[in-house]
Amino acid sequence: MSTLWTQLEPLLSKVQKPARYIGCEDGSLHPQPRAGQVGWLMTYPDTYEIGLPNQGLQILYEILNERDDAWAERSYAPWVDLEDELRRAGLPLFSVDTHRPAAEFDIIAFNLSAELVYTNVLNCVDLAGVPVRAADRRPEHPLIAIGGHCTYNPEPISDFVDLVVLGDGEEVVGEITDIVREWKASGRTEGSREQVLRALSQVPGVYVPSLYEAEFDGDRLVGIFPRYSDVPEVVEKRTITDLADWPYPKNQLVPLTEVVHDRLNVEVFRGCTRGCRFCQAGMITRPVRERPAEQVRNMVSNGLRRTGYDEVALTSLSTADFSGIERVVADTVNDPANCGQVSVSLPSLRVDAFTVGIAAEIQKARRTGLTFAPEAGTWRMRQVINKLIRNEDLYGAVESAYSQGWRRMKLYFLTGLPTETDEDTLGIAELANHCVELGRAHHKNPSVTVSVGGFVPKPFTPFQWFGQNTVPELYRKVGLLRDATRKSRGVQLKWHDPKATLIEGIMSRGDRRLGPVIEEVWRKGGTFQEWSEFFDHGLWVETMAAHGLSVEWYVYRHRTEDEALPWDHLSAGLHRDFLWQDWRDALDQVGLEDCRWTPCYDCGACTGYGVEHVVASAVPPAGGSQGTGQDLSAGDSVPVTIGGVRSSIGASTSTAGVGTS
Amino acid sequence: MRVRIRFTKVGKVRFLGHRDLARIWERTLRRAELSVAYSEGFSPRPKLSFGLALSTGYESDGEYLDVELASTAEPPQLAALPGRLSALLPEGIDATAACEVSRSEPSLQQAVTSCSWLIDVVDVTVAEATDAVDRALAATELMLTRERKGKQVTDDLRPYLLDLSVTGPTPTGARLLAELGTQPRTLRPSELLAALDPPLDEGLVRRTHQWTTDDGARRELIPLDATSAQHDGERAS
Q1: Contact status, residue A279 vs residue A461, Cβ threshold 8 Å
Q2: Residues of chain B whose C-beta is under 8 A from some C-beta in A?
Q3: Where does chain B hold its CATH 3.30.70.580 domain(s)?
């Protein structure tokens, strides 16, 4: 076994936070690979602190290491200081488990959860000593694979990856291992790389971009078609039917140095059917699959005992919706083994008083802050996005939180949503100001932090046809909010950089023509673009222009119903006509109930795969299917416009095209 | 009850910071099911106190930790404690001794009067290192200018230099053995090397002992007759 540790050790004395490169976590493994076993390097293309807690990578790391024919280790993007040292010393990207060179693995698999990390993927591949372009790789090079939410439109980075995995990875990694094991056994001879990729394209859930041709007619994408008749025309995502069969991670990694989400994490369900129209995660992970409450309790108590953590997060897209959440929370908080020192955190709280009741149960000691995500400032806007919370629901929750001892509220909002008017934007300030007023009745200095992010339309959502707001427009809206909150003591406004929102927008719905742009930005040093100190908006915009690509065309343009989208050859199960109808409903301000407890809308996520919701409770939570007892009828007959031109939706829009930068 | 624990920090874990180490100990004590006392107030923390912080990158055979146990807690078996804890600690961190100390004894920070260090210096011969050491010992003062809290401060380090010798060659240079004072402030090995004439380049550094003074005689913080259990328990990782 080859380890680079002795060469790395002197470099670590020269860099910041060297502890992130040593491994040694409780739960980490030191595989001793045997001949013929398939080696996977599970890689997160951002820092260790952000990547280590990633549950997807940890789950697959365990599943692969349990196999006889595979072994897996982990790697994270080295920070810029170590990258410099590595390049100067001629050392490659390495695993943190045994400090083995990345190129000694058969598959380097990246988790992609944000668009701005794409250049880091190229950097990691290059640091591994592997050609960045898939077309330049030879049989001796590892396969480069990607998974995670960004893979629902992998076209912008398709030049750089060999295979893309759609959906849940638990089962498919085994099927990939089988094929790669055969490839190794056959000696990885000249020309065999193409054959193994061809074989992998037959695995459901695996997309091999090099086996597809993107056809353009001028600027217009005609479609993305398989080059061979045996390669599937549409690649469907993978869905595990029952979370109870997959109680992973069994040995969650406990890092020795501080990371984000540094606590025990137990996934209580996967999928969400609340139907928020902006939310890609809620659309692509359907249906809802709950973990049995008994298994959750066991994973919590075993996990706490094994790790020594004093905090456990029950994770999902909306944990308050978990059947029997109160029991699970109460059992954990009151477990005598936990000595009253264990706290439970519920990411993504629902906005209602019931949720605050649970929060009160779990935060007996430290009532510092509560976070809610109303997402939009007016009821009208929230009907458009199908986040059906009335102002009274929010005020009820906030009032209840203040009266029970919380002093700080954090509220998350999106701006730049379809049909948004200035009244809607200013509604954000109104809500925040009113929340502070409610707090005054209970505390001297209540505080409300308002975080505003610019909306980026995502593939496989009803808003995938919507033209994103421009950078100046987002700045204008942020300005409106600054003016409206400037004088209110107690309201702090934070916002996401609209320029970063723009670049995310390019990647989110871009196509293969962006490959050279990503490569050039990387070659010019544009790594760690998620980090404000390195984010270089100008570099992206200039590079787009240099390649004759129009930001306007990619980001700001509304798409029409008949337009071919770069992800039409991929499927999350959702029917395109369901999404289109939901888009029309959004424009008509028609809300849609949660289908967990109501008749099926035939979105396709269940029916297409022969799977169904796994929900322990047959009745919706208190307050109706959306939890808040809201009125789902259509809104007032407010004329809805998008960017002032409603008529353009669904009809052909004429825009500046590609090549006219 | 206040329990004092001695432990090591060697190998890869030398790159952990002081805060990292504190968090590892908090989790380990919970896993060992020791009932640690918690502070009062808004955000209760377990009552742990560490001795003099070890610079990130240095190794140590003699780190110390005082743990305040809850008044209701069953007193632990001190002889078995080091082994029990080592089994739960990461590789390179081993508990090597434990004893009870009275609450009236001074804190670790106050109790330690000096530390012994093995300091590797690189790109230098034994003879050159010996010359530098002899010059330092013969000097009446060793001035060093350092930046502290944004200000340039010049101090005489000589009173803190209690002992210094060259123990022999290493593959890349020479090894020094030093005893450096810690009161009223600490002299670090890196500062000593910078003050030598000529200054020497630091390699691997290991703290071997932390000493306290009893009636003018120095002794280890945990008396020699206290438990010093060897362990061969199962490793945590």
Answers
A1: yes
A2: 12-13, 15-17, 19-20, 23-24, 26-31, 35, 38, 42-44, 56-57, 88, 90-92, 236-237
A3: 2-109
Encode A58-88: b = buried (16+ Cβ within 10 Å), e = exposed. Answer: bbbbbbbeebeebbbbbbbbbbbebbebbee
DSSP A639: P
Per-residue pLDDT, B232: 40
Look up residue A445 and give its DSSP letter.
S
Question: Is the Cβ–Cβ distance between A553 and A467 less than 8 Å?
Answer: no
Q: How many helices (H) and strands (E) does chain A have?
A: 20, 19
d(CA B223, CA B190): 29
Strand-pairing partners, residue B168, are B175
Query: Which of A27, A258, A308 is opposite residue B27, by nearest beta carbon?
Result: A308
Length of chain A in residues, anyone? 661
Kindly state the percentage of chain A with pLDDT values over 70. 91
Name the residue among B16, B30, B44 with its Cβ closest to that of A256: B16
The answer to whether A167 touches A571, Cβ cutoff 8 Å, is no
Residue A652: the pLDDT is 33
Which residues fall within 8 angstroms of residue B150, CB to CB, at 6 or more apart? none
Residue B130 has pLDDT above 80, yes or no: yes
Nearest one of A512, A500, A524, A577 to A549, comparing CA atoms: A512
Q: Is domain B2-109 in CATH 3.30.565.10, yes or no?
A: no
Indicate whether A37 pLDDT > 70. yes
Q: Which structure tokens are listed for A559?
A: 């798409």
**Chain-chain contact of B31 with A307 (C-beta, under 8 angstroms):** yes
CA distance B129 to chain A (A): 22
User: Among partner residues A17, A18, A309, which is closest to B27 by beta-carbon distance?
Assistant: A309
- Could you give all domains of chain A from N- to C-terminal order, each with its CATH number? 5-228 (3.40.50.2300), 263-609 (3.80.30.20)
C-alpha distances out from residue A648 to A97, A349, A562, Å = 54, 37, 13
Distance (Å) from the C-alpha of residue A305 to the closest C-alpha of chain B? Answer: 6
Query: Strand B151-156 relative to strand B143-148: parallel, antiparallel, unpaired?
Result: antiparallel
pLDDT digits (tens, 9 = 90+) for A310-367: 889 999 998 888 888 888 888 888 887 766 678 888 876 777 766 777 777 776 655 6
pLDDT mean over B65-91: 93
Residues of A in contact with B38 (CB under 8 A): 341
pLDDT tens track for A502-534? 999 999 999 999 999 999 999 999 999 999 999
Per-residue pLDDT, averaged over A14-30, amounts to 97
Phi/psi region, residue B7 (left: phi>0; alpha: psi -120 to 50; beta: rest), is beta
Q: What is the pLDDT of residue B224?
A: 63
Q: pLDDT tier at B160 (50, 70, 90 boundaries)? A: very high
Give the separation between CA A156 and CA A567, rounded to whole angstroms.
Answer: 11
Q: CB B23 to CB A23 under 8 A?
A: no
